[in-house]
Model the fold of this input.
Amino acid sequence: MASFDNVTKTGLKKIKKYGFKEEKPKSKHEEIRLSGSCSIILYKTGKLLVQGKKENTAEAEKLLLFTGAIKKEKSRPMSVGSDETLKGDTFGGIVVAAFMADDTIRKELKGLGVKDSKKLLKPQIVKLGEELIGRYPKNYHVESLYPREYNAMIAKNNTTKLLDNLHLKCYNKLSKKAIHIVDLYPGCSVGDIREKNADSKYPEVSAASIIARYFALIQIRELEHKAGFFIPFGSTNVESGLLELKKKSLDPADYVKMNFSNVISFFR
Done:
């Protein structure tokens, strides 16, 4: 159990979006009662109690701190954002990146122009990616699977399980206590906060997204150099690239995702 003073009902509103539901108070002294992985009870005196298993109350406390419901720390605590890219591309493997930030670094990221990577052009990705890894060498981690490694791993795991493992690995390389924010993907089961379009809401996720795309560009360029032809992004207009692989008698497992339906159909 953990307790905190001077908490307001308004301050608890944000935590409802993270799996907590409001219940009917059990006594006249209770202002609000929330249930989820543990119980959160706010009394009319302003005292807040968090009750449940130790690991669950610890996670709830991180969320309460992060959302600003409790003021145990003067600033928003350290957090790690993670995102992936190349997941839906025929060519290339998959890249997952994580970035750790506190309030000071979040402010710096905004000053650098860090934002949703989908709104940035490739030259901007390269420029910001290089600046981020140069300025914050200890604040990021990348897991870049090339096609050969991706194909070996996807044969043992589905895409969701693979992504879960990579996001968690990136997070653990940076911290085991900071709040973990994940840009939500179908079936995602890791992270303290999982939100769709998190890369447009949290600077740390935006930075992770930019770094992931930066390393994805490096991977694709290396594959192009090895193959000797232009490699297209995406999964719709890629037949010309697949034809080049066949024409040059290159092993497709070194260049494309062998579990994709268009690849299976083409090389049948």
